[in-house]
Amino acid sequence: VGPKPKKAMKAVHVCLWLLASAATAFVMAPQRRSSDFSLCAKKKKVSGLENRPVRERKVAEDKIELEGTVKEALPNAMFRVEVPATDSVILCTISGKIRKNFVKVLVGDTVKVELSPYDLTRGRITFRERK
Q1: Which whole-number Å values give the CA distances from 117 to 58, 61, 62, 63, in the listed order?
Q2: How far apart are alpha carbons 101 and 126 in whole angstroms?
Q3: CA torsion sign, 21 to 27 to 30 to 33?
Q4: How far apart are CA 123 and CA 114, in angstroms?
Q5: Rg (Cα) of the chain, in Å, rounded?
Q6: DSSP type of residue 86
Q7: Would you say residue 98 has pLDDT above 80?
Q8: What separation in angstroms does the CA of 67 have from each of 9, 84, 115, 117?
Q9: pLDDT value for 43
Q10: pTM of the complete model
Q11: Which tens digit of pLDDT belongs to each residue from 46-57?
Q12: Does residue 34 sit in helix, strand or coil?
């Protein structure tokens, strides 16, 4: 095995010099305190926020629950459900739990339908009554 080329030796010396200088710079560098970083994380207090009215979150109890009978099965897990309480037909889809548990909904089944107060023509089937 012959002598190492000069370029390889220079690269090794440069790497060793960089490592040594980085180590001494790390040891000699001043330690940063956590208080230096906390300045940018603090938010300014704005006066008058305490007097604002508090927003109320919507509660799941805003839903309207009705019972109905499935009249027609449509594609994409959609159904037409007749609700005798209002004498109307509602376009309904299956809720996630029924979809997840592979509950079969057939024409003629009695189901519980959940309606939004904003759109009374569409609903979600949340429960299939047993016969």
Answers
A1: 12, 11, 7, 7
A2: 12
A3: positive
A4: 6
A5: 35
A6: T
A7: yes
A8: 85, 8, 11, 16
A9: 54
A10: 0.54
A11: 555 567 677 666
A12: helix
| DSSP bridge partners of 124 | 93, 114
**pLDDT tier at 128, thresholds 50, 70, 90:** very high
Distances in whole angstroms, Cα of residue 10 to Cα of each of 19, 20, 21, 54: 14, 15, 16, 69
Dihedral in degrees, nearest 10, Cα atoms 114, 118, 120, 123: -30
- Tokens describing residue 91: 């376009």
Position 120: which residue type?
L
| Long-range pairs for 56-64: beta carbons < 8 A, 24 or more residues apart | 62/116, 62/117, 63/114, 63/115, 63/116, 63/117, 64/114, 64/115, 64/116, 64/117, 64/120
Burial level of 90, CB count in 10 A (0-12/13-18/19+)?
buried
Pairing verdict, β 122-128 and 88-94 = parallel
Q: Which residue type sits at 115? A: L
The owner of tokens 């309207």 is: 64
